[in-house]
Amino acid sequence: MFKRIIGYLKQLFRMSAEAAMDPEVEIEQAITESKKQDQALRNQAAKIIAHRTQLESKIEKAADTVGESREMAKKALLKAEESKVAGQDEQVVRWTQAATAQALKLQAAENNLNGLKEQYEFAVTQSDDAKKAVQQNAMRLQELGAKRYELVGKIQQAKMQEAVNTAVESIGASMEMEAPSLERVEEKIEGRLSQAKARAELREATPEGAENELREAISIAGADTKLDELRAELGITE
């Protein structure tokens, strides 16, 4: 259970960290890392090609050694043969031993040359593979560069759209804030109107209200009488 909790927390941290990362910075990190890998690959390829070049030089020297040993062995055999014809037994032994030594040297040189040739063939294959790898990685790096410009453009578009969305959401939020405010005003008005009606209704139900109503009726009747007097003076009939 404890391991599950630790795993969950690690995953949560990775997700949080991933969400907090700036995509533009991540792109630059990817490009920088790709450039480092490309340089490392070029350095390794250079070592492989240099090894092939060194083998070429060694093969050339080994071939010279083989040729020299072969010639020296031949000369020693000729000297031994001349000494044999001349009846110089000691010289025959001497030159025969020299020829044998050169033959052993020739054999060793030929074995060394053959071994170098085998290494060279393998080194050529490795060099070709290394050059192809460098070329392919260079193309990949160029593609990453082009992709970088594309992604940066998309990031800028996303930022612009986010800014527009924020502005729209801000407008919507302010409108939502205004609507409850007007509703509260309307509620206050309706509340005051209700209270006024309630007071009027209560006033009419009390003796003071009845007295006020009577006075209002008397005032209206007096006003009507006064209007009749004015009409009589003016000679106006209803």
Briefly summarize what is shown.
With 238 residues, this protein is an all-alpha fold.
Q: How would you describe the overall organization of this protein?
A:
The chain has two domains: 164 residues; 32 residues. It is mainly alpha-helical. The longest helix has 116 residues. It contains four helices and no strands.
Average the pLDDT over all residues and give the rounded result.
Answer: 78
- Structural class based on helices, strands and sheet pairing: mainly alpha
- Which consecutive residue ranges, at least 5 long each, have pLDDT under 50? none
Whole-number total of structural domains: 2
Helix content: over 70%
- Number of H/I helices: 4
Sheet with the most strands? Answer: none
Shape: rod-shaped
Count every beta strand, where a strand is a DSSP E run of 2 or more residues. 0
Oligomer: single chain
Strand content: under 5%
- Give the SSE string: HHHH
The rounded distance between the terminal residues' Cα atoms is 104 Å
> Radius of gyration, rounded?
56 Å
